[in-house]
Amino acid sequence: xxxxLICGDGVPASGLLxxxxxxVGLGTDLRLLELPVSxxxxxxxxxxxxxxxxxxxxxxxxxxWWERARPAPPVLGDPEQAAxxxxxxxxxxxxxxxLGPVDRARLHERIDRLADRYREYFSExxxxxxxxxxxxxxxxxxxxxxxxxxxxxxxxxxxxENRSGGVLFWDHDLFGSCADHExxxxxxxxxxxxxxxxxxxxPGVRWAVVSEALAEEGAGYPVxxxxxxxxxxxPRVPTGPLEPRHTQFLDGLGLxxxxxxxxxxxxxxxxxxxxxxxxxxxxxxxxxxxxGLPVPYLLVFGSLVEDPSYAADVLSxxxxxxxxxxxxFLDGVPLCSVRDGTGSWRLDEIxxxxxxxxxxxxxxxxxxxxxVETVGLGPAxxxxxxxxxxxxxxxxxxxxxxxxxxxxxxDPRAAATGxxxxxxxxxxQANRGGDPRTTGLLRRNRRIVDRRFPTDPWAxxxxxxxxxxx
Length: 470
Prior knowledge:
This protein is α/β, with parallel strands linked by helices. The protein has helices at about 15-30, 80-95, 100-130, 145-160, 210-220, 245-250, 275-290, 310-320, 350-360, 380-385, 395-400, 415-430, 435-450, 455-465, and strands spanning about 5, 35-40, 65-70, 135, 165-170, 180, 185, 205-210, 230, 260-265, 295-300, 325-330, 340, 345, 360-365, 390, 410.
């Protein structure tokens, strides 16, 4: 079975893609997939990701298991005018309920004009790459309604040609549960409206979500069948001594291997709360100095170019706290560890977790908005690597992890993060020393995530898709 990937994030590497990498690994282990996966990461329809619109980063992503989509997606006219049109359509869809009859008809025409071009593009892409199933990540959201409409049409055409296959819509966010705002205006309607195509079950279309809460929301949408729950697959983190690529990575970033590493596995995007992670680091630094311990580093997964205004705020916080020597922004984490154009190592999520574990470090996960994360994988990543985790409270935490999962709580009020930093240093020190209570809590965390993020649902779904039961 050959897979395609369409991702609505519009950035070269995101947490959704690393999860998909784990799915591909499972499918490969089960001998169900034929590699490589052809992928379109949405650069041409996400002008809000200005650093990547419309053709992606200057340096092409590389991987042994995936490749950039061919042919190139359409960009209608001048990129600046295209960006204005995409942004205008997105905001008009979000405000659809307030539009009058004339504006509604005009919006439908604008959506259809773009959808026609993208339907042709997707149909050609699927045929050329012999794609059986396309995985469409977060394409139910209304960032690119014309693309979603085109993808549904192309999926049904492809299913008709093959008599099997189609598109699996795989959603980590839905309308009501993704209360993201831009300039004080909600980016999405709080529920579907007449402009938002939905993945109705039928020939060539399947729909899966990553949590029971999202399935409950989807069940209230005007579709014949609710989405299927297929939890995320977590990475497997090897143990044992570090390898040359790990030490070369540390050298390349000027990191002292004697100091612990804290990972902040998020994009540099406003709702992710990187500024709170910096406050925790500042407190952890003070506590470490008081105890005569090595001061931790903080490695932030995301890129400073995704959201320039927020990145400026984050850097301002780092300067105010005198943390710039202790923080590294990784400019996006690759799907597989690789040397970049300068020959320097860039480590993937698994290798970063492995390096943090070897250093006796931890994970900091501090979303600053309660109702945007629908799972929040920071605590789970800490658990699979055997690391302590400091986390803010957010709506999805308890449904995802339960009451027995142990984290160092972070109060989002900046003045209150000091205690979290102290407690995190205590937990890291105890873990390095083999304290029975701490190691017991971390083992329990691991058992919880093994139970709550099983691989069986994805194995069953991939097997059904491969058998052509769409």
